[in-house]
Structures are given as structure tokens and as C-alpha cells.
What does this fold into?
Amino acid sequence: MTVPARSRSASRPHCGVRRRRLASAVALTAALVTPVLSAAVPAHAAPAVGMVAATHGAPVPVATPGDLLAAGDDGFGQVSGILKQAAGRKVTQVSAGYTYSLAVADDGTLLAAGNSYNSPASGILAQAAGKKITQINGGYFNALAVADDGTLLAAGLDGNGQVSGILAQAAGKKITQISSGYYHSLAVTDDGTLLAAGRDDYGQVSGTYGRVSGILKLAAGKKITQISAGETQSLAVTDDGTLLAAGWDYTCQVDDLLAQAAGKKITQVLAGPGYSLAVTDDGTLLAAGNDVYGRVSGLLKQAAGKKITKVFAGVEQSLAVTDDGTLLAAGNDVRGQVSGILAQAAGKKITQVSASQGGTVTLAVADDGTLLVAGSDGFGEVSGLLKQAAGKKITQIASGVYHDLAIGL
It folds into this structure.
């Protein structure tokens, strides 16, 4: 699979013009858009052409050991295979890639099933043999993991060195954070050094595209505390809260976010497909880039005047949680993945959010452990997971393209 070429000379509005248009869109959202919370959820539909998975840099938290739940598309054994491996075990972490699943057992054993291009599941499983795993990150086509001694593991599609390159840079180093983008990988060492490898035609690694500086150049000599690898952009935060951003900037997901973050201390970043999200230390939401479905302007409108504690950059929908646990959601709602999750979350305090890499399903967890799921159910990824979660307290969620994972107590 290849990403369509983007021409340097292709005409596009200046980012300043896009900022003014976005401001107008936010205003229009307030005047014209009223969520229809009773929207029906169609059985199944394919994701929008050209949309790719969102990946996030936040480490997968270690949950209280619980039962693995999995439902949805099982064409590569990503559901049945991971459930079989987890039988009789308790798991503490879950993460999902395109058509594969990752989990960590309470003894540190890596579980991995399913596959897509270049076998990320089987490859990472082989590397993890005999090791205790502390972190996992399931990217679209490549998987990353960290062992308890800080060793980086990486497997999957390597056409741009996103696997071999990051492994070479990490050799002999202790890794503390990982994030897998569409065709590039990021990692941070225990001394705060940023590592980056993979496709770089848009400057997401070294800055070879136009005036966008590379993330490695920006991070040189700085201590990095957070990372997020998106479709064609990279985000990082330094130890003083400065935002670093590099990559393809056609929809201003780099320049506009940097402009919004100037002079502010950043506490969270998420690089999505064509857009970027960040949160400041006072809880202000920053968002920039492709506003298809209103996933940028719509979320900004809802977040105005609120303190944001969590964000998620989905393929077709964006999500945020306020300091009082209110769920915010904006974007494509043709399958009820926005209105449906908002309806379920009404009156509840939300502690976790996620969305499928196909953009068709949204997941959330309430503070009492109740699982909320809305969107397309063509593979039973909604009804199947809800059935398994009935009567359980959910501690963690993750989603691939058409399959979902959770941990239940």
C-alpha cells in the first residue's frame, strides 16, 4: 500500500488563511450544528477512502490484571487467536493494529495474534520470547514493544526503515516511550533523547520537505517527555512543555498547531490522520489540520471554556474528556459513532476514550467501569464486545480497524 504523492508545488491556502476559515467554521458549528442523539446505527459501511489510522504516543497504561475481551473481524485470527492465547491468563495491557491484536499477560508475557503486511504480530511475538514486556503499541502496519530492561522490539512493514531503522538507533539504549505512525516510528530513551526512523518524504523524521523542520532536528539537545507519530507528521513535547512538530503541512496540522501552542506549556499531544491535537497545562484544547466532518472545528467549539484532560485523534472522529468527565465528540456520524457515544455518555463521568482505526466505531469507559460502544456493527465489534463486557468493570480499551479489545474485571 502506498500513500498518494503530494506535490510541493500544489496550490494550497496559506495557514493563516486556513486559521481564519477554521475560526469561521467553529462559529458556524455553533450556529448550525445540533447533534442528533437518536441517530440510528447502520449495520456496516466501509471507511472513507484514503483515511488512515490514528496512532497515539501516550504509553498504554498498565491495568489491574483482568480478563481479555475481544470481538469483531477475525479474518486474520486477530480475535480468536488472541483470545486463545489469553485463555487462563490475566492481562494488563491491550493494543490493536490494523488486523492484529497485542496484549501483555500479568507475568509480562507478550500475546500477539492476527497479521497484516509483513507479519507484525508473529514478528513481535518471536522477538519477545523469554522477555518481560512493559509497553506495547500496535501501529497500522508495524508493532512496537519495550521489554523490562528497556530493549526495543519492532516488527512489521519495513519498506522505509521504520522497523530496522528504529531498532538500529535503539541498540544499546533503554527505551521509555514508543509510538508507531503509518510509515514511521518514534521512540524516547531514558535520557530523553528522541529516536525517529521511517518514511521521510514529508519531513516527519528529518525535515526534507519544504520549510517544515524535521522532528529530529527540532529535538536535538532537548529532553523529550511525550511523542506521537501520525500519518505524515510527528509531534513531541520537551521537558519544559514546548511543542515540537514536523512533517507534511498541507492542511496546516503542523504550522497551525505550533502557532496555537506558542508560549504555552503542552501536557498532551496526539497526531491523527491529517490533523493534530494538543492540550495545554491549563486544560485548553488546541487543534489544527484537516477539518473534514468538523472533527477539528466541532471539537474546538465543544471544548471552548472547558478544561480538557484527555484527547483522542480518530480517523473520522475526534474525542476529548473534560475535567468533570464529560465526553466531547465531533466528526463523521453516518454510523452513529458520534451521536451514539454522546447519548450513551450523557450524565456519566468518562475515564477512557478510543476509536477504531477504520473510523466506524467509538469506545468509552465510565468511572464505574461501564463500557460504552457506538457505531458500525458489521463484524459484531459493537454487540460482541458489549455482550462480553456485561457485568464486568472495564479497565482498558483498544480498537483495530474492525475489531475491538478490552480488559474486564
In short: The radius of gyration is 20 Å. The mean pLDDT is 87.
